[in-house]
Amino acid sequence: MFCDLRTDQVRDAFPISGATIEDYLGKSGTCTGTLNTPDTATAQCITEAVIPGRTAVWIERDRQTWWGGIVWTLTANSTSREGATAEQQAATFDSYCEHRLLTEDLRATDVDQFEVARRLVTFAQSADGADIGIRLDEAALKDPRAPRGHTTHKDEVLRVEHALLAEGLLAGKWADGAFGTKTIAAYARWQRDLGFKGSAADGIPGCTSLQVLGDQHDFYVTD
Q: For a designed S-S bond to 191, which of 66, 102, 162, 196 qualifies (C-beta 3.0 to 4.6 A apart)?
């Protein structure tokens, strides 16, 4: 079954022969297989439904889903006995981060590598049309504890989080004064709503975006 990568809407379903699935530790899994195109109409349907880099494929057998990923290549071949075929190569959904081309810089200071990786996943999906729904697992969504001696500003953070909540960008349960992963993602959406792009919409408050938020929700920003 082939679906639109961004909306998950079903495009079409085709039988795949000779499917080979490989799973690896530490890198993306892969799937290769052949789509048979016995006539021109079928070939046209496959061409319209399977768009490399924009189509998800789900391998099903006996009504059970065995594998899912992103189609990256679709190569047409010709045979004399069975007509034309198309060779599909796909990889698991995490392969999206290997193919995503970033044209803006993402800068991070005084944060650990884990936090940089989390921001990269969010940043890679921040452009228009780039969010394919990749979400970190529960362990990755837990923010690390602040280092000893770190100073928190819970009251100030809560004002920002309540403003984001009022804007419909943050769920109430995440307004906890910690400015964690959920708040960063919500603030990045606020920045994009204001027209900021790339590294200027990384979820870290800047003076301009924070001032606009404060003007609309009755708090003041000082240098």
A: 196
